[in-house]
């Protein structure tokens, strides 16, 4: 996942608690299962032994294991982006996707709060290639962030609209600034009776606009590559936006209701169709614990 924008309203007593729009960018040759309710085989393939997979809704990376974004019936949430530092990448580093799946499946040896879990992750964060990790528990009204390439400890996220790409939280890369502002505008115009439609959030993220050269970051890759990766929706011959996810959590009569939509390039048999046009949707109520 390489671009995430989200709006967080932890004090909401009615209406929308959490709104997210995210693009997963990946090499086209890397196989993955799209969004689905996990089985025991998914947890085993994700190296998340000891946890429960039956309540996890997520995609799954079939190469390294783990996942990039997911949620559970119990109200847990997690999302990951890579931190772009090409000269620091190690081929022997452990896969980052299991940092997401271990939280979602509730592995028995981890802390049971988002902040506590990220504190544990931070103790061994230097073993991994660069990442941003957002961990949440909607029932606790807690959302936390950690980046293993920032000189910052894990932190609880304040109310508001935020964005993460392949640098630290809210780094003002052009596509992040643009999509964060667009999300904030949509959320501001929504009401409890008429929240932002998920299809509108997906369409918002399918934006191929390239940033002007003067606004591009310098991350250690070629100028041509910086240009291509400056789009919210990336399209190159070997790498691109493989899927878009929209997510909304609503407070209604004291209960939490979740709606998720994924538009991906995978028809479920790992046949790649560019650009993606396979839609998967899910709705559920967060179960009381």
Automatic annotation (TrEMBL):
Which InterPro entries does this entry report, sorted A to Z? TANGO2
Q: Which Pfam families match?
A: TANGO2 (PF05742)
User: What is the protein's given name?
Assistant: NRDE family protein
Which organism's genome codes for this protein? Paraburkholderia acidisoli
Give the classification, highest ranks: Bacteria, Pseudomonadati, Pseudomonadota, Betaproteobacteria, Burkholderiales
């Amino acid at each position: 996942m390489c671009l995430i924008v989200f709006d967080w309203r932890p004090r909401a007593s009615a209406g929308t608690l959490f709104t997210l729009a995210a693009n997963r960018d990946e090499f086209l040759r890397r196989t993955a299962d799209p969004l689905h309710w996990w089985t025991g085989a998914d947890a085993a393939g994700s190296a998340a032994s000891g946890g429960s997979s039956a309540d996890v809704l997520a995609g799954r990376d079939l190469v390294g294991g783990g996942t990039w974004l997911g949620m559970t019936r119990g109200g847990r949430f997690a999302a990951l982006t890579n931190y772009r530092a090409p000269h620091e990448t190690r081929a022997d580093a452990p896969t980052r996707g299991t940092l997401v799946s271990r939280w979602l499946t509730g592995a028995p040896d981890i802390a049971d709060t988002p902040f506590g879990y990220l504190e544990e992750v931070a103790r061994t964060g230097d073993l991994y290639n660069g990442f941003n990790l957002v961990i949440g528990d909607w029932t606790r009204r807690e959302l936390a962030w950690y980046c293993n390439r920032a000189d910052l400890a894990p932190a609880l996220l304040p109310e508001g609209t935020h964005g993460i790409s392949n640098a630290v939280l809210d780094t003002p890369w052009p596509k992040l600034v643009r999509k964060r502002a667009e999300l904030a505008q949509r959320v501001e115009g929504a009401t409890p009776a008429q929240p932002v439609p998920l299809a509108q959030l997906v369409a918002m993220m399918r934006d191929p606009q390239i940033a002007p050269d003067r606004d591009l970051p310098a991350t250690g890759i070629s100028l041509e590559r910086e240009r291509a990766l400056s789009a919210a929706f990336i399209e190159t011959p070997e790498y691109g936006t493989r899927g878009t996810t929209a997510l909304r959590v609503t407070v209604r009569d004291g209960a939490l209701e979740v709606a998720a939509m994924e538009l991906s390039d995978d028809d479920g048999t790992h046949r790649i169709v560019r650009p993606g046009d396979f839609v998967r949707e899910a709705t559920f109520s967060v179960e009381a614990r």
